[in-house]
Design brief:
Largest sheet: 13 strands, antiparallel
Mean pLDDT: 78
Number of helices: 3
Distance between the termini: 27 Å
Oligomer: single chain
């Protein structure tokens, strides 16, 4: 597939802020692939997320905030040692993570975690690289393998087990920096219409990512934290219920509840 310059360089917006101690920053790519066995089209996503990366730069750290207090914690509180509980409240997770997932009725998500210092970042040209995983202005490539035992012992971190490898090219047909912005959050679909091509293997099944008739989508989000209500729907081509025909240059995206309202962007 011929490489093209993407229309907007705004995938870099917020990139310089990732060294802040607090905050989240991610890139998310959606695309479809043809199952080599069933010949059906299935939808996938690849995501790279940074969460409070400089709090624990040498080792991924996962907060215990969502876990119940232990008997030792409660005993400490009873004897007046509240410092341990206060320190626990202040703990925040810190990691980088690659995710690849298959959407639909048989959805599955594979994750691999890293520390901030495991990653290599470049601004010109744009590139994120961790081990065998790569994101740049034109490519997505990598491999993830999650053991069944890891998923059993840590289902929150590893909701599923299996393996996947991918080698994709992409170029953006339609870009926008419109979306949502305030003092806490920024979201925009900088690749509102994106063409993907290449190959992917997901749990032993090969998929062909054919650019013909399968438009994809890319978005960026960064902010102080996750938004409370996370909703996402996107469509790169709308079909009229009246005529049954495709509406030329149509698309829409609905994302997250910001300020008690859904964010809508569409043609």
């Amino acid at each position: 597939m011929a490489k093209k310059n993407i229309k907007s360089k705004d995938y870099k917006i917020g990139f310089s802020n990732i060294q802040k101690k607090n905050g989240i920053n991610f890139w998310r790519f959606f695309f479809s692939g043809i199952n080599s066995v069933s010949k059906e089209s299935e939808t996938f996503f690849i995501e790279f997320e940074l969460l409070n990366p400089s709090l624990s730069p040498d080792k991924p750290f996962f907060s215990d905030l969502n876990k119940p207090f232990s008997p030792n914690d409660l005993q400490a509180a009873l004897i007046g040692d509240i410092n341990s509980l206060e320190n626990k409240k202040k703990e925040k997770s810190s990691y980088c993570v690659f995710r690849i997932g298959k959407l639909g009725q048989k959805s599955k998500q594979l994750c691999q975690y890293f520390a901030w210092n495991d990653a290599s970042f470049s601004f010109r040209p744009f590139e994120i690289k961790i081990g065998n995983k790569l994101i740049n202005e034109y490519q997505l490539s990598g491999f993830i393998n999650v053991d069944e035992q890891d998923s059993i012992e840590n289902p929150t971190l590893y909701p599923d087990y299996g393996y996947s490898n991918w080698n994709l090219e992409y170029y953006i047909q339609e870009s926008t920096v419109l979306g949502y912005k305030d003092d806490k959050f920024r979201w925009f679909p900088f690749g509102k219409k994106t063409i993907f091509a290449g190959k992917l293997n997901f749990n032993g099944i090969d998929y062909v990512i054919d650019p013909k008739g399968h438009e994809g989508y890319i978005e960026r989000f960064y902010g102080n934290a996750f938004i409370n209500k996370w909703v996402h729907i996107n469509c790169s081509e709308i079909i009229s219920l009246i005529t049954g025909k495709r509406i030329t240059d149509s698309s829409f995206c609905i994302h997250g509840v910001f300020g008690k309202k859904l964010t809508f962007l569409g043609n």
